[in-house]
Design brief:
By secondary structure, the protein is an alpha+beta fold. The chain contains nine helices and four strands, in the order H-H-H-H-H-H-H-E-E-H-E-E-H.
């Protein structure tokens, strides 16, 4: 795997748990590298080793950490400009998932040794879809779940609930096949027209309110004036 993935994990651990925690995890995992090169390849077992060591050092479940690593990766790649690529894969979350294999083919120009997973979408309906994930890597199910959820939140204003409904290892091609069921909930957003109307009505209400206040203030001043006038007349 390329160093970009490991860089994102190192960045996440250092920011959330501190440099000392990362150093302890690195040493416990037996990783000789103190830094990683984005375009250099490393052992496929490196991330599972980091997750296992981090679980022991930090005290969080390994699956939870892998999920967090996946979430962090989506935000991390923004500094390399890859977020702009993710944004144009489609108008909806379904479009993004259907275009993932094409995205990986595009990335081969920058990462020629890339061994990407494969994604296939089926059984789409208004509530969600079924996503098939195939990869030669083992132990990345929660990592992928974190990535997908974060993409939905960040780029499509969509809450993604992910459930594993099937998983098996194929000895013939040495791949893991996982079947996910995704429930998609798009957060409501105001259109510019509605937003404008809301602001207009709010402004109108403020104007009306200020008019009432001015009228009441005028009545109060008038009352005080009459009171003072009658007081002077009595003297």
């Amino acid at each position: 795997m390329y160093g970009l993935l490991i860089e994102s994990i190192m960045d996440y651990i250092r920011k959330r748990f501190g440099d000392e925690a990362w150093e302890s995890i690195r040493q416990k995992a037996g990783i000789p590298h103190t830094c990683f090169s984005t375009h250099e390849t490393y052992s496929e077992q490196l991330i599972p080793k980091i997750a296992d060591s981090a679980s022991q050092v930090i005290g969080l479940p390994e699956d939870e950490l892998m999920d967090a690593f996946g979430v962090a990766f989506v935000s991390f790649v923004g500094q390399y400009g890859y977020d702009s690529i993710l944004k144009v894969l489609g108008r909806h979350m379904r479009d993004f998932l259907n275009g993932l294999d094409n995205l990986h083919e595009y990335l081969r120009f920058s990462y020629p040794k890339l061994r990407p997973p494969s994604f296939f979408v089926e059984n789409e309906n208004k509530n969600g879809l079924t996503l098939h994930y195939r990869s030669r890597r083992k132990g990345f199910v929660h990592y992928v779940k974190g990535q997908i959820r974060r993409v939905g939140e960040l780029f499509y204003s969509t809450k993604v609930d992910i459930f594993v409904v099937g998983q098996h290892f194929n000895k013939d091609d040495n791949t893991t096949h996982v079947t996910f069921r995704l429930l998609l909930t798009t957060w409501p957003s105001k259109t510019p027209g509605k937003l404008t109307r809301t602001v207009w009505w709010t402004t109108s209400h403020l104007v009306d309110l200020s008019g009432v206040l001015v009228h009441k203030l005028q009545e109060l001043v008038k009352g005080v004036y009459l009171l003072l006038s009658s007081s002077k007349a009595s003297h």
